[in-house]
Design a protein that fits this description.
four-stranded mixed β-sheet; alpha/beta; 431 residues
Amino acid sequence: MTEGTETRYRVRGGGPLNGTVFIQGAKNAVLKMIAASLLAPKGRTVLRNVPAIEDVRRAVELAEAIGAKVEFHEAERTLVVDATNLTSSVLPAEITRRFRASVLFVPALLHRFGEATIEGVGGCNLGNRNLDFHYRGFARLGAKVEEQDTVIRLDATHGLRGSHLYLDTPSHTGTENLIMAASLAPGQTIIDNTAQEPEVGDVIAFLSKMGADISGVGTGFIRVNGVSELAAVEHTVMPDRIDAGVFAMAVAATGGELNLVGGNLDHFGVVRWKLEQMGIEFTQQGAVLTVRREKPLRPINVVTSPYPGYATDLQSPIMALATLADGASYIRETIFDGRYTLVGELNKMGAKVELDNSVAIVHGPSELRGADVVAHDLRCGAALILAGLAAEGETVISNGYYIDRGHASVVERFSSLGADIEAEACEPAGA
C-alpha cells in the first residue's frame, strides 16, 4: 500500500466459483518464525512458503529497523534473515503502532541485548488481546518490566532463567512467545495450559531445527530445556488453515467446486464439522482438499473456543455464510468481542442479524445486495468479500488494507476461480 493511500475492493456477485487455488503459508506461524530467527547470532535463516501479506512486510520492516538484513523474494515466497549484527533493542513506534505482533520480537532482544523497549504502547495495551500473558511470563523468567505512558521497557541484564509458567487462557501467541524466551534460558521451563493450534506445532518444529529442546507439543503442557545457542536453519511454513477456511466458505457461499492445494482437513478442527453440518462436502486426496456445495445451506450454531474448537478467526466468515442458510443460526464469540463489528455491515447488505447479549442471531436466507461497507478488521474484511460474492450487484469494501494484512494476492486468486473482484487505490477517509 502506498503511503497516503488506502485500498478499496470492488466485488460483483455472480455465478459459482470453480477451479484450483493454492493456499498460502500460515500467517500465524511465519510471523513467529521471523521473530525467532533473530535468536540465531550468526548465519542466514531461510523461510519458504512465506505469504506476501502486509503483516509479513511489517515484520520485515521491524527486523530491519533493529539491524537484521532481510531479503523477501515475494514471487518465490522465500524470506532470508541474517541477524548476525543486530544494532538496536528498541522496537520503534512508527512500526509497533501498525503491527500488533511486535511483542514477538522481545525474546530475541532480551537474549541478544539483555533489554528490550517497545515504543508506542502503554498501560491500556497490557491487558489487550492477552498481551499481559507475555509480560507476566517474561517477568517470571527473570525480566524486570517497567510500564510508562507510551513505552514498555524490559530489563534482563542478568539473564533469563527457567521457571514454571502458566497461561490463564491458551493464547497461541503467548505460548509461542514464552517458548522462544525459554529456549535460551538456563534450566527447565514448564508452561501450563498452552495452545494446541497446528501453527504452534510448526513454530516448535522450526525452533527444534534451530537446536531448541522442546517437548509436549499438542498436549497443553510444554517443557523447554534451555540451550546455550540456536542456529540459523531452513524451514517451509505450513499452509494457512484460516486462508483455506475462507476459500472453503467462498465456494459454500456461491456454489461450485474448488481444489485447495495445501488445504488440510486435519487442521480445521471443529470448523470442518460445522461446515459439513451446513451442507459443504469435503474430499481429501493427499495435499489437495476438494470442497463443493450443491444443496441449500442449513443453519448452524457456533461457539468459538481455542483449538481444536471453532476458530475465532473464522467466526466472521461463517456469519456471512449463515445469512444464506435456510433458518436461524446462533453464533457466540467467546474470545474477542470485537468480532461483532461485521453485524452492521452485513445488515447494510440486506442481512437480518441481531445481537442478543453475547450471541449473534442470523436470520436466513437473505437476498444480499451490493452496498458500500467497511472492513473493521482482517476477518471482517474477508467475510465481506464472501458476502459480496453472494450478493446481487456491486459491493465496495473500504479499509481493504485489513484484508491485505492476512490474505495474499486476493484479486488474482479469486479472479482465477471466476470471481469478479478488483482492488483500487483511494484517498484515506477524511483526506
